[in-house]
Amino acid sequence: MAYETIIVEVEDHVATITLNRPDALNALNAQLLAELSKALIEADANDKVRCIILTGSAKAFAAGADIKEMSEKSFVEMFLGDFFEPAIEAVGRVRKPVIAAVSGYALGGGCELAMMCDFIIATETAKFGQPEINLGVIAGMGGTQRLTRYVGKSKAMDMHLTGRFMDAEEAERSGLVSRVVPAKKLMEEARQAADKIAEKSMVATIAAKQAVNRSYETTLTEGLLFERRLFHSLFATEDQKEGMAAFQEKRTAQFRDR
Ligand code: CAA
């Protein structure tokens, strides 16, 4: 399908989805959210794809939900339209790893979209923020919940209540992003991470993603049990036999997702 607000490229085992509304700093309007949802579901269903990279432009990953589109809406229109939900649901449904490669502004819904991904690689120019308070509203795509889990209550409150931006250095120090790289290296670094992921057993990859995500949803005891059950179940795969044999034979494992 031809998209107007995003660009989708599949190269080898990696699908790269680039948000592409440069005139609006990639603000998330209804069309972009619908296209993004579709592209994510398509990439997840594509057997060739083993990892997805979500990115924006050098200036903005995304500067938030589209304020111009929202500004005149009533409560009932927002409530019934619920137009952020399909994208939130689509990102949540993707079983393959999704890396957010963030340069420039990741604000409001843009910060929230990055946080929905499995991990964030950022450039030194990245700026994260939840400035919705300046518009007389609050975050609406998960920011009060996810930012708090990433960086803790004190910093999350600071960000949501003052609307201040967090630079890349602070974001890395606080655990919001996994790596900070020079601007020119962003896609190379994201691609290298995606290629590394693509080499692994897809069965173990999905199990790892599910287990880490479970830690947000459950008690430690239940999470540990969930992890152990998945760990045990991986001994039913050929990939476990191959991975452990390859280690002992001092060669690279050839995983076949079996
Ligand atoms: N929605 C719609 N348009 C936006 C936008 C947004 N979130 N962010 C930027 N734009 C548009 C601007 O209106 C401008 O368009 P025009 O040229 O037609 O005026 C264009 O993008 C370039 O933006 P600026 O001229 O403002 O660029 P700048 O470099 O001076 O400032 C910025 C950059 C600090 C990111 C500033 O654009 C800004 O503050 N944007 C809004 C950030 C924001 O409040 N985000 C939260 C949105 S609400 C939300 O996301 C709710 C939720 O949780 C789901």
Automatic annotation (TrEMBL):
Descriptive protein name: enoyl-CoA hydratase
Reactions the enzyme catalyzes: a 4-saturated-(3S)-3-hydroxyacyl-CoA = a (3E)-enoyl-CoA + H2O; a (3S)-3-hydroxyacyl-CoA = a (2E)-enoyl-CoA + H2O
Organism classification: Bacteria, Pseudomonadati, Pseudomonadota, Alphaproteobacteria, Rhodobacterales
Function, as annotated: Could possibly oxidize fatty acids using specific components.
EC number: 4.2.1.17
Annotated keywords: Fatty acid metabolism, Lipid metabolism, Lyase
Enzyme class: lyase
Biological source species: Salipiger profundus
InterPro entries (UniProt xref): ClpP/crotonase-like_dom_sf, Enoyl-CoA_hyd/isom_CS, Enoyl-CoA_hydra/iso, Enoyl-CoA_hydra_C
Highest taxon, organism lineage: Bacteria
